[in-house]
Amino acid sequence: MMSTKLLARIAAAAERISPPPISHLDLRGAAFVWHTAPDRLTPVPRVNRVDIGLLVGIDRARDSLVANSAHFAAGYPANIALLWGARGMGKSSLVKAVHGALLSEHPTLKLVEIQREDLPSIGRLLAILRGAEGRFLLYCDDLSFEKDDQHYKSLKALLDGGVEGRPENVILYATSNRRHLMPRDMIENERSTALSPSEAVEEKVSLSDRFGLWIGFHPCNQDQYLAMIRGYCAAFGIAIDDDTLRAEAIAWQQGRGSRSGRVAWQYVTDLAGRQGVVLPAG
Fold it and tell me: Which of 192, 217, 242 is where one domain is finished?
């Protein structure tokens, strides 16, 4: 039989391993970041986002996500969403901007950011939010999985809901550069080496199918790129004539070897610095 002293040591070790329960949950803010070890929701006093009106060239994506989010915020059915596609085209910016745009009409809508590395803890987060007041938009940025990565199994707790089901006051928005959340060469490799190619990657590929709303983002054209820059300049009081803006912005794009909303903002940041114009932090 185990001695009392040994049992006490085992119990103490288990207590150290298990995260302590959250004794007091303060959800008076509008945005939070989920942390583990110990589990906690850290308020974000000021969300790093741009006004939704400054997001140019993604009108269809904007309208779809605004409508879906408004349904959820009002307590109606809404889909979990996967925003996928070209880098730097405003996927994460759109999620934060939509939340900001709906806050005045729906003050109980909360944004909760969770890191991909913390997905194994998502069951504990759902248990906390299930009984909380408010509507919670979980947001996971740059979601993707590599070979032998088991984090995707944790995500199924939210996508499928298990026995309890997903809390009706929780929804998930994820962004990814990959439509199926895993690299194409991995999909093809598993198909070519598996005894049953059609089943080999079904579990992982079907993960993206569990998102009810897919929103694709594609590279912008030159007119959209210039319109993004002009919109930023107008919003932040940066004076520059059209010919100079066009010449400099195209040169900046060529120097970066790409054209996107992120590249447009980087040019505006440089231009503002040269003109001594202060931009919002972040």
Answer: 217
* Number of structural domains found in the chain: 2
**Is 119 inside a domain boundary?**
yes
* Element containing residue 138 per DSSP (H, E): strand 135-140
- 133 and 66 fall within a common domain: yes
Together in a domain, 116 and 185: yes
Please write the tens of the pLDDT for every residue from 166-204: 899 999 999 998 777 765 555 445 445 444 555 545 555
pTM: 0.82
Do 210 and 226 fall into the same domain?
Answer: no
Q: Are 48 and 222 in contact (CB under 8 A)?
A: no
Contacts 24+ apart (CB under 8 A), 62-69: 62/94, 62/98, 64/213, 64/215, 65/94, 65/95, 65/98, 65/173, 65/213, 65/215, 66/98, 66/101, 66/102, 68/213, 69/98, 69/99, 69/102, 69/109, 69/137
Going through 161-241 in order, the beta strands assigned E by DSSP cover 170-176, 213-217
- What is the domain range of residue 245? 222-275
